Amino acid sequence: MATEQKQGKPYGGVPGGAKQQPESFELHIDKQKIQDMKTLIRLSPIAKETYENLHTDGRFGVNREWMLDMKKYWLEAFDWHKHEDHINSLPNFKQEVTDDDGRTFNIHFAALFSKKKDAIPIALFHGWPGSFLEFLPIMDLLQKKYTPEDLPYHIIIPSLPGYGLSDQPPLDKDWRIEDTARIMHKLILSLGITSYMTQGGDIGSFIARTIAVLYPECKAVHLNFMWMPPSTSKTSLPTTNAENKSLQRLHDFINTGSSYGLTHAFRPSTIGLALSASPLALLAWIGEKFLEWSDPSTRPSIDTILADITLYWLTDSFPTSIYTYRQDYTNTEEGYFHGLEKYKVEKPMGYSYFPYELGPIPRSWAETTGRMVWFEEHGSGGHFAALERPEVLLRDVEGFVGVVVKEGAFGGS
C-alpha cells in the first residue's frame, strides 16, 4: 500500500511511489553573511548627480533618488528573517537528480502536496530576475482555499539550476534551456509522478514549453509570457484595440529595453563579476526590471523586490542565472523560441495575457505556436504576474486545468 513521507508541515506529505524521497529543507542564512551584506550596502556609494540619473521617468533607467530611498530601506527597515520565516513555514525540499551523463544536481523545490489520489501535479517555473519566491503568494492562496485533504493539485515550485537554492550548471560545459528542462523533468519523475502539467513566465515559459514538447509525461502547458518579435507573418493577423495599444511595449522593449539581455548573452562573465561586487549594483540592475516590467498599479512592494534581490545576493546566484540568454539572444530565427516550429505545442496550451508584460503578445500570434484551448485577457498586470496578480493567475491556472481535465488529458471526461 502506498505510504506518504512523514512530514511535520501541512501539505508536506510526499505522495507514495516516489523513486527517491526528497530531503526536507529549511533555509537558514548565517547571521554573519547577512551582516556582511549590510556592511557592503552601507559602504557602497551611490553615484553623484548626473543629467541622466535625475530623470524619474525611467527613460535612462533607475534614478538616483530611488536608489537612495532603496538603500535606506534596505538598511533600516528590511528584515530578511521575516522572509526566511515565511519560506520555512512552507514545505521545502532538496532532491538529488542524476543527469544522463551521471552528474548529480541537488535541486531545491517548494511544494504543496495533496492527499487526494487523483491530484494533478503542476510544476510552476520562475524566470529571471525572479526566483521561487514569485510563487509564494499563490501557495498562500491555495492554503487558504484548500486543505491537504481536498487540494486538487500537487504544486511543485523548483529553483532552476543556477538560481537561489539549487546547484549551478557545470563548469566544464555549456548549458542550455533543454538541459534545465531535462533536469526539471527528471526531478518531477523522481517524485513518482507519471503525468503532470507545466506553467511558466519569462525563462520559466521556455522551460515549461520545452518540457511540454519533449516529454510525453507532460500533458499540458500554461504560459503567461510568450514573447515573439513582430514579423510580416504575425502582424497581418487580427488584433484587438487593447492588444494594439499594448504592443507599443513590445516595440519599446526591442528598441530601448533589451540591452541588458545582450550583455547577459555576450558578456556574461563581465556583468557577473561586476554585479557580484556590490549589493547596490545588483539592486540597480534587477530593480530596474521590476520598475519597467510591471504594471504601476500592481507593482510588487519594495519589500518584495528587496527579498528577491537579497536572495540573489546571499546565494551568489546572479552569475549562474543568466546562461539562458546566450542561447536566447543569439537565436536569429524569426520565431525567437516561442514561435519556432520545433517548439510548437500539440498538447493543450493555455495563455494568460497581461497588458504590461514587456512583450504582450496578441492572442492571434500566440495561437500559431500551439493548440491553444484556453485564453484569458486581463486589463492590468505585467511581467511578474505571480507577484502582481497572484489571485488572478491562480484562477487562470485552475480554469485551464478544468478544460484540460474535460479533454481527458489526466483521465477525466
TrEMBL record:
Sequence similarity: Belongs to the peptidase S33 family.
Coiled-coil ranges per UniProt: none
Gene Ontology annotations of biological process type: epoxide metabolic process
Cross-referenced Gene3D superfamilies: alpha/beta hydrolase
Catalytic residues in the record: D202, Y325, H383
UniProt keywords, alphabetically: Hydrolase
Region (Disordered): 1-21
Keyword Amino-acid biosynthesis assigned: no
Protein known as: Alpha/beta-hydrolase
Cited InterPro entries: AB_hydrolase_fold, Epox_hydrolase-like, Epoxide_hydro_N, Epoxide_hydrolase
Domain of life from the UniProt record: Eukaryota
Natural source organism: Amniculicola lignicola CBS 123094
GO function term, MF aspect, one: epoxide hydrolase activity
Epoxide hydrolase N-terminal domain residues: 23-135
Pfam families listed in its UniProt record: EHN
